[in-house]
Design a protein that fits this description.
With about 200 residues, this protein is mostly helical. About 75% of the residues lie in helices and about 0% in strands. The chain is elongated, with a radius of gyration of 19 Å.
Length: about 200
């Protein structure tokens, strides 16, 4: 039993070391230019450990993207939870996600290299859990009469899609600060269309 526990702890430790090392390398050099040998050497591990744990370099990128995306979602949630009401919270979460596109690590790994090498971000597993959270919040707002009685999943997908596309636009822009201001203003206006008209 002890040996089994130690083995799974060691595997977790190996995975964590590889992800941390890859995260630094991908942030500094970009995914394509990051060397697998340098990356594994920095983690004090072999390429065999990388293949065993992630299959290949792309599998490692996926793990890094999932880790950063999960951190982004929990940071956005914390910001949303500080808002004065559920509607402002929902908006604050979307806006926080868009604003994170200014952070170099998020920009390079999640918003530029992620889609280029892992495909459509709306299909990433991490985006699915985000979608479920948004759908639940939208459902609550519909029940409260704050949001029009539209389909909750449709509204959640459109809100998340708008935030994600705005973040991708900011990340790819030559003037991210200017684009951010425009994107946030338009995101607020779009989201506002879901509000139920005052009784």
């Amino acid at each position: 039993m002890m040996a089994g526990k130690r083995r799974s702890e060691m595997m977790e430790e190996t995975r964590a070391k590889l992800i941390a090392s890859a995260r630094r390398a991908f942030a500094e050099k970009g995914y394509a230019a990051a060397s697998m040998d340098e990356l594994t050497a920095e983690a004090g591990l072999t390429r065999g450990a990388l293949y065993h744990n992630f299959g290949d370099k792309r599998g490692l990128l996926q793990a890094v993207v999932e880790q950063i995306d999960a951190e982004m979602a929990s940071r956005a949630r914390m910001i949303g939870n500080q808002a004065e009401n559920d509607w402002e919270g929902l908006l604050a979460e979307g806006i926080a996600y868009i604003e994170m596109a200014l952070e170099p690590e998020v920009q390079r790994i999640v918003l530029l290299d992620g889609p280029a090498f892992l495909g459509d971000p709306s299909r990433w597993p991490s985006q699915n859990s985000c979608l479920q959270t948004t759908q639940q919040k939208v459902g609550d707002l519909i029940a409260q009469g704050v949001v029009r009685p539209v389909d909750g999943e449709a509204a959640a997908r459109l809100l998340n899609g708008a935030a994600l596309n705005a973040a991708l636009w900011v990340a790819a822009s030559d003037h991210p600060q200017d684009v951010l201001a425009k994107a946030v203003e338009a995101f607020r206006a779009l989201a506002g269309g879901l509000l139920a008209p005052p009784a």
